[in-house]
Amino acid sequence: MAVYKRSYSGYTGKITPRRSRFLILTRYSARGLFSSRIMTGLFILSLIFPILVIAGLYLNHNTQLMSLLKFHGDSFLEVKGTLFMFVMSFQGSFAFLITAFIGPGLIAPDLTNNALPLYFCRPISRTEYVLGRACVLLFLLSLVTWIPGLLIFGIQGTLSSGWAIEHLRIAEGILVGSLLWISILTLLALALSAWVRWKLVAGGLLLGVMFATTGFAGAIGAVMQTAKGLYLDPAAMVAIIYCNFFDIDNKSGIGTPGACLSLITMGAFCIWLLSKKIRAFQVVR
Amino acid sequence: MTPAIELAGLDVHLGSRKILDDLTCTLSGRTIGLLGPNGAGKSTLINTLLGFHKPTRGTARILGHDIQKDQDHIRSIIGFMPENDSFIAHMTAVAFVRMMGELSGLPAEAALERAHEVLFYVGLGEARYRNLGTYSLGMKQLAKLAQAIVHGPQLVILDEPTNGLDPPARQRMTRMIREMKETGVRIILCSHLLRDVEETCEEVLILKQGRIVHYSNIEEERKANLRFVEIETHGDETGFIEALEELGCECAIAGDRRVKMVMSEGMEIRQIYQAAAATNLQLRRLNYRRDTLEDIFLKAMENNGGRVSAGPGERNGSL
Predict the structure, then answer these.
(1) What is the pLDDT of residue B303?
(2) Which of A252, A280, B243, B254 has its CA 20 to 30 A from that of A271?
(3) From the candidates B117, B131, B160, which should be mutated to test the interface with A, based on the most A CB atoms within 10 A?
């Protein structure tokens, strides 16, 4: 029907598959993401460090360039677990900042504008709605965390034969630690924005929650002389996972399963919080 | 025609409160009005039909589909315009309506085309690239209608569609509802404005305290009302009444010089004048009985204990 006809007609065309429809929300959410200069700047900054590390790896294996730069050591960059620990921790911090910046804006506007009934009167479930919103953060944070991490791992593996097979656990650590970290960040950001509704407050609260849990874990450790308080600190749990996979001394005594369980519990709590708030209508009892 | 709504012993509790109480009815009209005072359960009924609230007991079907078993299918064939402000402030109307179309299953290009079409149709063509946050209340209502019809639903649920509209915009809205009805779209209209319902609906369901207190088939009632006549006379009406009864009418004297009658099938009003002339009786006034929706509504509200009553439409609709 041409627009000038201005009369109502039904739709008889084809319909898209149901399974991938939640990605429509992801697409629309991602659209305006880089319209903010702060966000664009933050994202570019987050990519600088991995690029420098990749340049260092290249330098490590280019003796001509090393001699040109008058570097006489064994290697420019020592490639072992500690390097990956540093890279992933650094990238993890950027992931946290990006989450604090864009995470609260994913759900809060829908709640403040009372838009949820419009989504849920369509063939889209609450799970798909949250998944669609979460995918924006998951894709973006992947570009900042495990993708550069695995890229560095892959380049090092290509440059020195046999290294990748020997250090396969590093790749596993990058994947497991990053995925848990970005999942927790995403769920926490969505849950807080669903409960607080104001973007700025939710962003501030996310920062507060992260610092508060670290502080609380430190306080428990100092008072009770135990590392068990770390179970409340998601950043510490991810660091423990990295340590165990990267073969770095882990002084806390918490194993990978314990750390994973703690993070999964936190994630489940966030999902519960979301399930309470992501509804077409709030029922006042 | 498949019934638009079938309710069978539907109970809905919100928390410990019973909001809908044993609703049973079958509504087959093309446009169905849902009436009732505040807190009657109209919105809860709509939300239950949309699957937002689970029935505690009983079943409900929309266009023959069970609301619990075929929820996905139902949601793909219905459109919903909520009562409250529901929009995404930072989106343009086109982007908003397009996204809603895509979520209903339209491919991206078709959704964009339809978004432009429906925005022109509802009268927001010139403002379609403006952010929804900058819209007036009336424009937001129209944008809500656009998103409800973008995917060409078979049934549209409109919750207070004329809220916040000025008289021309209200007329435009009711005209659009009538137009949509003509194209075969079934409509459920929930409104406090009886005039809107009267102008657009064929059937009316009145709720009070979560129960159905009245069902009325307005179309049937309009036809039936034409057969009830009240006459004021001057003179001796005995011969006149006998003449009318010979024509098959049922007559009753309703006070001094007033006659109430039900015209027989196929009888024309001209024959009443002929009977009066033949019996040499002056007719001072002749009225059709006309129950407005307001009368029906007020009678239903007076109904004690939430007992169901039904107008002449009871013959077609079932309760």
Answers:
(1) 61
(2) A252
(3) B117
- C-alpha dist (Å) from residue A14 to A17, B110, B294: 10, 9, 44
pLDDT for B158-168, tens place per residue?
998 988 888 88
| Tokens coding B153 | 């639903």
Which residues on chain A place their C-beta less than 8 Å from a C-beta of chain B?
1, 3-4, 6-16, 18, 21, 24-25, 28, 32, 109-110, 113-115, 117-124, 279-281, 283, 285
Q: Token pair for residue A188? A: 């926490």
CA-CA distance, A165 to A154, in Å (whole number)? 11
B258-262 and B250-253 as β-strands: parallel, antiparallel, unpaired?
A: antiparallel
For the segment B134-151, the average pLDDT, to the nearest whole number, is: 93
Angle at A66 between CA A65 and CA A70, to 5 degrees: 115
CB–CB of B215/B184 below 8 Å? no
From the DSSP assignment, how many helices (H) and strands (E) are in chain A?
13, 0
Question: In this complex, do A8 and B185 lie within 8 Å of one another by their Cβ atoms?
Answer: yes
Residue B305 has pLDDT above 60, yes or no: no
Give all strands (DSSP E) within chain B, no chain letters. 5-14, 17-27, 31-35, 57-62, 65-66, 78-81, 155-159, 186-190, 203-208, 211-217, 228-234, 250-253, 258-262, 282-288, 309-310
Distance of CA B58 to CAs B25, B36, B65, B123, B133, Å? 12, 22, 14, 41, 41
**pLDDT number for residue A88:** 95
Q: Which amino acid is at B6?
A: E
Say which residues have a Cβ less than 8 Å from residue B212's Cβ, sequence separation at least 6. Answer: B23, B24, B25, B205, B206, B308, B319
Sheet holding B155-159, edge to edge: B78-81, B155-159, B186-190, B31-35, B203-208, B211-217, B309-310
Beta-sheet pairing, B203-208 with B31-35: parallel
Which amino acid is present at B222? R
Which letter does DSSP use for residue B79 in this model? E
Distance from CA of B222 to the nearest CA of A (A): 28
What average pLDDT score do residues B127-156 get? 93
CB distance B106–A118 less than 8 Å?
Answer: no
Q: What is the pTM of this model?
A: 0.82
Task: Find how far residue A42's CA is from the centre of its chain.
Answer: 14
pLDDT digit string, tens, across residues B229-273: 888 988 888 888 889 888 888 888 877 788 888 888 788 888 899
Beta strands B211-217 and B309-310, pairing class:
parallel
- Residue B32's nearest CA partner among B163, B183, B195, B157 is B157
Structure tokens at A105: 């804006």
* CA-only gyration radius of chain A, Å: 23
> In DSSP terms, which residues pair with B284 in a beta bridge?
none
